[in-house]
Write a structure and sequence with these properties.
By secondary structure, the protein is of the alpha/beta class. Helix content is 45%, strand content 18%.
Length: 210
Amino acid sequence: MEKEISQAVIRRMPRYYRYLGDLLEEGVERISSNDLSSRMKVTASQIRQDLNNFGGFGQQGYGYNVSFLYDEIGKILGLDRTHNIIVMGAGNLGQAITNYMKFERLGFHIIALFDSNSELMGRKIRGVPIYMVEELDAFCSANDVDIAALTLPKEKADAAARHLVDLGIRAIWNFAHVDLNVDERDVVVENVHLSDSLMQLSYNIVRNSR
C-alpha cells in the first residue's frame, strides 16, 4: 500500500522545487540541508523529514545534488508529463491565467477557453481559442482534458463542476469564490481563494503596526 503523504508536506514540495530551480540558475551543484534551510526559512530537520517521505535523496556529509533533487521533485509533482487544461470563463481572470506563459514551461498546456458571451466567439488569447459553452461536450469528447480551471461566478461554479465531472474530467482548479464539494472520490479539487491571501496580508500588516 502506498504511503499516505500529508497535505502539509505536499504544499511545501512546490516551494522546494522553486528554490532548487533558483539554485540551478545560480550554478550551484550541491547544497546541504542547513544551507537550504537558511535560504527557505524552514528548519533543516523539516527539510530532511519532508524529503524522507519520498526516499531522502541526500548523502551524509555531501548534502543534496541540486540538479538530481530538482528533477526528482519534478517527478513527484508530476512535472515530467504534460497536462491539458481548459479554462471555464474567458473574463479577465481566465485570460490572465491563459496569458501566464510559465505554466507551459512546467508542462501545463491551456488548450481552450469556454464562455457564454457570444462576443468572444472566435477570439484567441495568446493563440488559445475561445469556444462557446455549448461546444464543451463535443470538445471534451474529442480531446484529452486533464484539468478544468473554473473562473466563473460562484453561483455557476457547482453546476459547472458537476458537469465537468460527468464529462470525465478528474481535476478541477477552482478560482470561483466558493469551496467546491465534489462527491466523487476520484476527483481532485484545488480551491484557490485570492482574497484569502489578501486578508492574511492585511492581518499581518495590522499586527505588525501595533
